[in-house]
Amino acid sequence: MIHRTPIGLLTLTVLSGLALPACSSQHPAIPESICGTRVDQKLTEPLLRATGKVNEWHTAGWGDRETNWCIVRVGKEESLRLKFAWHSDAVDPMKSASPDKNVTGLQNPVQMQLADNAALGDDGAIATTRCQTKPNNHFTLALKLKHRDGVPRLRRDIEQFMRAYMPATIKAVGCTHP
User: Fold this and answer.
1) What is d(CA 154, CA 65) in angstroms, rounded to the nearest whole number?
2) Is residue 136 part of a domain?
3) Which domain range does residue 94 map to?
4) Is there a domain that residue 1 lies in?
5) Residue 140 and residue 128: Cα distance in Å, rounded?
6) Is residue 54 domain-resident?
């Protein structure tokens, strides 16, 4: 029979509390912004599956080119890619989302109500809107998950992320409707 004393329980409680920070420090912090756009960490976390340090790589001339890439890595593995594109004509996200498209193809794409036009897949999304910039007047954002062990079906998480990220990005890049 084990006798528990108040001091023994207090010691156990204090030691348990000390163990929690040690466990949580093994999981790196999710960044408050992804590729220059602030987004709720709760929306980003399921897409990153963070098990290491989160870092970003941007194309040279970030923001000065018509097409820019941002690759987000967790540890040494690529987790997701974002493509930011400014162009003169409207694009159909469903055509770009076709699974046979190597760069932007999505698994099981469907039409999504977001911005002017959007497509949502199990492994990413593409959204486009009018955006007055010189000399272009359209902006397209493409998200593609790149987990090495296969992309989990995260359609709902991707949709929630894009519903927050697309409007915030439009604002961050200074889009105005023509």
Assistant:
1) 30
2) yes
3) 29-172
4) no
5) 4
6) yes
Integer Cα distance of 37 and 155 in angstroms: 21
Count structural domains, the chain.
1
- Output b/e per residue, 106-116; b: 16+ Cβ within 10 A: beebeebebbb
pTM of the complete model beyond 0.85: no
Burial code (b: 16+ CB inside 10 Å, e: under 16) for 65-96 equals eeebbbbbbbeeebbbbbbbbbbeeebebbeb
Q: What is the per-residue pLDDT for 128?
A: 96
For 61-97, how does the pLDDT look when each residue is reduced to its tens digit (9 = 90+)? 666 778 999 999 999 889 999 999 999 998 999 998 8
Per-residue model confidence as pLDDT tens digits over 14-42 = 333 333 333 344 556 889 999 999 999 99
The verdict on residue 2 lying in a domain is: no
Structure tokens at 61: 């001339």
